[in-house]
Design goal:
The chain is α/β, with parallel strands linked by helices. The protein contains 16 helices and 16 strands. The protein has helices at 15-26, 71-76, 108-114, 119-131, 133-140, 154-169, 183-192, 202-215, 228-240, 269-276, 282-289, 327-338, 383-393, 412-415, 431-435, 468-482; strands at 8-11, 31-34, 46-48, 56-58, 85-86, 90-95, 101-105, 222-223, 244-246, 262-265, 296-304, 321-323, 348-351, 366-374, 401-407, 452-454. The chain is globular, with a radius of gyration of 22 Å.
Length: 491
């Protein structure tokens, strides 16, 4: 890599890296983004499938529960830039068995009405969360160090307390007390399982409360054309402000980098250590070496000839389907994963993006996107396990599968180096892991090296396609290294 000079270098072109780069470039800085993969985007890439001509698969993420909620992305305003984010009326679905399913609609009232005996409890649980969703989003997607102004009054404090009590309830063995059937608990647990952690637990509970609340407000959107549309829009804005992206540029050491006043790493702590470990203070290096990665996901890409024949037709309107059965079944499967064992019936997630974006159907074929939770570094092919889970709730599914291909957890880091051992959350989601992510420090983005910041989803606020980690880190770099104000991201 040729050593030149620039104002700022961003290593990694995932949503956080690109959001950081855009923020710095809009402040008038010369910004260079270096990406190891041949295609930019990190966890938000869409590539042509080699399973069917013209069909495109999302390489990592496909559905983005926080894309419409993120303060950074709201300001950036993808819609004003021609990127269509479609949030189906049916946010997600949870088949319970061959005969019944629970459905989460954007309408809280409709969701409660179809949950039967669990409807009043569901409405009571989410009413105050939906009412205060903007404040709760600011807290959840903040940097864990600054309180939103809305908390500086009794109403804001009350809203946070009510949310906290719900998180605590769903993090303890009392999590079933408010419900009367299997429907409500399963519908909430399918979202909690996104944390890939034991159930119940505080991290899983917080995940379910936050994501399910957005399912009842802005919805869970799919970008038309695939996740790569978000990446393309961010890169376009970066280039319009003088920045540039270089792909196929793996960084192994800081000695390979151009001279710059700021470096922002959209990498895992392991990647940061590989590049800068020899320059860090020993205590910081040791803390990052202790960073704990979590369990994993193994991905399955399908090519389908027809829509999935769900036993409950309502499930077919959901672009996101959680496949784990009852709350008890999901808790058992996640406990098996945490114990290092591959479950016979793993917790799985399935998405047919053509439900929201019909343009993804090519020549009568449609992409199917799925993953299963597995132990870290699990090398096995989970195609049969995921197919069996779908077939369980959609008899005849095998008949519409044209082809299927698995990316084992042990190979996920080949597509995205931040997914160590297949950990798509880039760090274990535990209570401590969220509070001290990536280490216990007042500034979680600092590295002890002046001008070097970590800006990946291994830092606050949490995993997800929201760009907030990059935004928080870039704001610090602007203040500390350049004495510049934070620019607007608006078009």
């Amino acid at each position: 890599m040729v050593r030149t000079s620039t104002d700022a270098v961003v290593i990694g072109s995932g949503p956080n890296g690109l959001t950081a780069a855009v923020t710095l470039a809009r402040a008038g800085l010369d910004v260079l983004v270096l990406e190891a993969q041949p295609v930019a985007g990190g966890g938000a890439r869409t590539l042509e499938s080699d399973q069917a001509d013209g069909l495109h698969h999302d390489i990592c993420s496909a559905v983005h529960p926080l894309a419409l909620a993120s303060p950074a992305f709201r300001q950036f305003d993808f819609a004003a830039r021609g990127v269509e984010l479609i949030a189906p009326e049916t946010s997600y679905a949870q088949p319970i068995d061959a005969h019944q399913a629970a459905i989460a609609y954007r309408s809280l009232e409709r969701t409660a009405a179809e949950l039967g005996a669990d409807g009043p409890a569901w409405r009571n649980f989410f009413d105050p969360l939906v009412e205060n969703v903007d404040l709760l989003t600011e807290v959840a997607l903040g940097d864990r160090r600054h309180l939103p102004g809305g908390l500086l009054n009794p109403q804001g404090i009350g809203a946070l307390v009510r949310a906290g009590l719900r998180v605590i309830e769903q993090a303890t063995p009392a999590w079933n007390m408010r419900f009367r059937t299997d429907l409500g608990p399963a519908l909430l647990t399918g979202v909690a399982a996104h944390a890939i952690s034991p159930l119940p637990s505080p991290a899983a509970s917080g995940t379910s409360v936050m994501l399910a609340t957005h399912a009842h407000t802005v919805g869970w959107p799919i970008p038309v054309g695939g996740s790569g549309a978000l990446t393309a829009s961010l890169i376009s804005d970066l280039e319009a402000h003088g920045g540039r992206v270089v792909t196929g540029a793996e960084v192994r050491s800081w000695k390979e980098l151009p001279r710059a006043r700021a470096y922002l790493a959209d990498t895992s702590p392991a990647g940061l250590l590989r590049i800068w470990g020899d320059r860090m203070r020993p205590a910081v290096r040791r803390a990052l070496e202790r960073f704990r990665y979590g369990d994993a996901a193994a991905k399955v890409d399908y090519v389908l000839s027809e829509p999935v024949p769900w036993a409950d037709p309502r499930v077919g309107a959901a672009a996101t389907v959680h496949l784990g059965g009852t709350r008890a079944e999901m808790a058992f499967a996640e406990a098996e994963v945490a114990a290092g064992r591959m479950p016979q019936r793993p917790m799985a997630l399935f998405s047919d993006p053509s439900i929201a974006d019909a343009g993804r159907i090519v020549g009568g074929l449609r992409p199917g996107w799925a993953y299963a939770h597995v132990p870290a570094w699990y090398p096995g092919d989970v195609t049969e396990a995921v197919t069996a889970q779908i077939e369980r709730f959609a008899p005849g599914f095998r008949d519409v599968v044209v082809s299927a291909r698995c990316t084992p957890a042990s190979q996920m880091s080949e597509h995205n180096a931040n997914y160590v051992g297949g950990d798509i959350a880039a760090g274990a989601l535990s209570t401590w892991g969220l509070l001290a992510r990536p280490r216990l420090a007042w500034d979680p983005y600092a590295t002890s090296i002046p001008g070097v910041y970590l800006c990946s989803q291994s830092t606050p606020p949490a995993p997800g396609v929201h760009g907030m980690s990059g935004w928080h880190a870039a704001r610090r770099a602007l203040a500390q290294r350049f004495s510049l104000p934070v620019p607007s991201l608006a078009p």
